[in-house]
Amino acid sequence: MGSFFLRTSLGRSCKRISKYCSFSDSSGAAKLIVSGNPIHCYNSSHIYQSHRTIVLESISSESVRFKRLSGYDSGIVEVSLDRPSTKNAIGKEMLRGLRHTLEIINEDRSAKVLLISSLVSKVFCAGADLKERKSMTPSEIQLFVNTLRSTFSFIEALHVPSIAVIEGAALGGGLEMALSCDLRICGEDAALGLPETGLAIIPGAGGTQRLPRLVGKSMAKELILTGRKINGREAKSTGLVNYCVPAGEAHLKALEIAREIIMKGPVAIRMAKKAINEGLEMDIASALEFEEECYKQLLNTEDRLEGLAAFAEKRKPRYKGE
């Protein structure tokens, strides 16, 4: 597991520093070494310091990084893939780290929006690690794909909205990860595709089910049966992504959208996501009843009263998620 060491230098002001945590071993805990004493960090979101500037420095390669934004962006959390040697191909260790990080986010009620991005230039995620898979038995492959599928379903079911920030290639499992997010933003030079049939398999982590729900049955069949890659503009025209922006600007657009979301009532955002996701799997009559149940859960919240008060007083609401 990648450990962190603290490097301190003198400073005058008290600062709140967002941190990166790496979760890449089986336990999933990031360890901080402070004066020789290990501290395991799980839900702590910031390090406070007075008269010192604290820099977190990783001394080994990490595949998953977790960052909490602060200040006006408080409530936005970001998971960044960082495995440049494999173009962010997902292996066993990376998958464990991703799952553990997502579980932490789902338990954190201060989190309001999740961004999933890449720290590797010109690639979001190249899919599964095929070199690692070559050494697996069929039963091991099945277990890995099942875990990958359940992890992507976990993203889809998170209590917070998720936004995939796609620059460069999002192929195979990489695109399936993006499909499990609520929104997708890509750069014009993105390359998106599900090439599995060229390897004599099918997309097995949700691709055959989520893609047609976004782009329609006919287009999904074309993309999966041919394994064809499409660029950002075509992805936008088919409905695969919400926005296609100039290359290099996907993260800025994702932040813009995330900032709009965090200004809304957190409980309402959770209920809206739940009503849409689960309602789409029902007939219309049942879905409308389910919408009613979701609405009822908001009637007695403090946020609803705050929203009305803010409207009457012509000010911005101060929602607490209660």
Structural description of this entry:
The protein is α/β, with parallel strands linked by helices and 322 residues long. 39% of the residues lie in helices and 24% in strands. It has eleven helices and 17 strands. The chain has helices spanning 92-107, 130-133, 138-157, 173-179, 207-215, 217-226, 232-238, 250-262, 266-279, 284-296, 302-313; strands at residues 4-10, 15-18, 20-22, 30-34, 37-41, 46-49, 52-58, 64-68, 76-81, 113-118, 123-125, 162-166, 169-171, 183-187, 191-193, 230-231, 243-245. The strands form four sheets. It has a seven-stranded mixed sheet with strand order 3-8-9-10-12-14-17, sandwiched between helices. Strand 4 (30-34) and strand 5 form a beta hairpin. Helix 1 packs parallel to helix 3, helix 4 crosses helix 5 and helix 5 crosses helix 6 (217-226). The longest helix has 20 residues, at 138-157. 35% of the residues are buried. Keywords: Lyase. Belongs to the enoyl-CoA hydratase/isomerase family. One of its GO terms (biological process) is fatty acid beta-oxidation. GO terms for molecular function: hydro-lyase activity. This is Methylglutaconyl-CoA hydratase.
Ordered list of secondary-structure elements with their pairings:
Layout: E1 4-10, E2 15-18, E3 20-22, E4 30-34, E5 37-41, E6 46-49, E7 52-58, E8 64-68, E9 76-81, H1 92-107, E10 113-118, E11 123-125, H2 130-133, H3 138-157, E12 162-166, E13 169-171, H4 173-179, E14 183-187, E15 191-193, H5 207-215, H6 217-226, E16 230-231, H7 232-238, E17 243-245, H8 250-262, H9 266-279, H10 284-296, H11 302-313
Helix pairs in contact: 1-3, 4-5, 5-6, 9-10
